[in-house]
Amino acid sequence: MIQFYAPDIAVTPVLPEGESHHCVKVLRRQPGDPVEVIDGKGSVYSCRLLEAHPKHAMVEIIGRRELPLPWTYGLTIGVAPTKHLDRMEWLTEKLVEIGVNRLIPLRGDRSERKELKTERLEKIAVSAMKQSLKAVLPRIDEMTTVSNVIRSTDARQRFICYCDDSVERRLLSRELQPGEDVCILIGPEGDFSPAEVRLALEYGFVPVSLGDTRLRTETAALFAASTVHVLNQL
Questions:
Q1: Fold classification of 75-233 (topology level)
Q2: Can 3-66 and 75-233 be said to share one CATH topology?
Q3: Is 80 exceeded by the pLDDT of residue 167?
Q4: Residues 145-156: pLDDT tens digits?
């Protein structure tokens, strides 16, 4: 069944304007038709359409069930957005489909992109959440400096993906401990600066490699998230 997203459905049984339009104008749902609504917090609501208004479709809640994420550990990916925004949008979609708890756009010393509006990424995340049949919307932070993320993360496992061979790195796949919260930092096209790497090491981050092939920023972030999930399923 097609899912609709309404974060306040438990309090206000009305679909947001965009979801109402999709329900009524695109899918042509009529009063009395069943609709399934997710709140982005882990709940799925079985509803019946009461008023087929294209801007504020009203529903009646019939039942509710929990749909937790299929993994129990926290996965945070911090990644420096690329110069071309469409690549960051693609990454957001794929990370949500594969599974991530939190996405942090990083502003590093060598970042080409210094500003980022997250509204577009949040819309993409909602669409990917629905497409992948999840009911939990990942947290997408505002752009944050690398140093702030390094100092504030509380994940048990902390990794920084770094390309410079002057720092000894280990394979992520060999360092990861399944079942524990993990935070992985992916740098910009120009990599992390030496100062950022030194700070990360001071705060317990482990410098890691994703293999022998040099990957684009968005490819590296997706590969890292996939590695975490695969190793946790073994």
A1: Alpha/beta knot (3.40.1280)
A2: no
A3: no
A4: 999 999 999 999
